[in-house]
Amino acid sequence: MQFHPSLALGLVSVLLGIGQATVASANVISPSGEPPAFESVIAQTSSPEDPFAEPPLARVDPDSPIRIDVVNGGELPIIFELTEPIALQRELPPLGEISFGTTHTSYLPPPLSLLAYPLEDEIGINLYVVSAEDNVIEIVVSEQLSDIPGGRSMVITETGGIYLF
């Protein structure tokens, strides 16, 4: 499996904590009227009413074959599953690489949903789209300790828009 040269830089950036992430801050006032507390949250890329109202992170040509290359940049195994189209679960070991689809013979037809989730209940997942060029989507995924554990998903819409949830 061959990855785009920017993947190494993206992977190092993510692992060092200097990768791109949209972080927003909010002042929270408790119902008891206590002074506001500072809380950092990952900014949502869509509204709850229409998750695809915002522009996509990237685009692919939905009429051409699509390949998704994934690197597990973390220290724990992560499970991946295509739910549209349905495919078997695949476990990706730490620092492992995996591909879904190919750009040469067959293709994954949009709409497409890829789920990533940890084996351990108290762990959350970070999922980053490093690049999306020539219908090859490169993703780095890693675990994180989280107050809200669970998985992440990547959706490719019928028009080729790429979204993370």
Determine the number of helices (DSSP H or I, runs of at least 4 residues).
Answer: 1
What is the name of the CATH architecture? Sandwich
How many distinct domains?
A: 1
- Rg computed from alpha carbons, rounded to a whole number of angstroms: 17 Å
Low-confidence spans: pLDDT under 50, at least 5 residues? Answer: 1-46
Topology:
Layout: H1 6-15, E1 23-28, E2 37-42, E3 58-59, E4 67-72, E5 78-84, E6 90-92, E7 97-100, E8 112-118, E9 123-133, E10 136-145, E11 152-156, E12 161-164
Parallel strand pairs: 4-10
Antiparallel strand pairs: 1-2, 3-12, 4-7, 5-6, 5-8, 8-11, 9-10, 11-12
Q: Would you kindly provide a written description of the structure presented here, covering whatever features stand out?
A:
With 165 residues, the chain is mainly beta. The protein has a single domain, classed as Immunoglobulin-like. The protein has one helix and twelve strands, in the order αββββββββββββ. It has a six-stranded antiparallel beta sheet, with no helix packed on it. Strands 7-4-10-9 form a four-stranded mixed beta sheet, with helices on one face. Strands 1-2 form a two-stranded antiparallel ribbon. A hairpin with a 4-residue loop joins β11 and β12. The longest helix has 10 residues. The protein is globular and about 40 Å long. It starts with 5 loop residues before the first helix and ends with a strand. The N terminus is likely disordered.
